[in-house]
Predict the structure.
Amino acid sequence: GTLLVRGDLGIRLPKALDPEYRHHEVVTCGMLMAIGLKAGSVGTGVGAVLGFLVYQLAF
């Protein structure tokens, strides 16, 4: 039983404590937060670009 528990902890803990893994999680979270915070302005920017392209193609 102890060997299984130790093996389980040995597999799970390093993944959570691994700097590269932590960095990836933080970067992913940061990107999602940035996308959420900028959703309004990004939507406006995309709308402006699409409007400009349609204007260029139509005229």
Remarks:
- The chain has a mean pLDDT of 69.
- Helices lie at 2-17, 19-58.
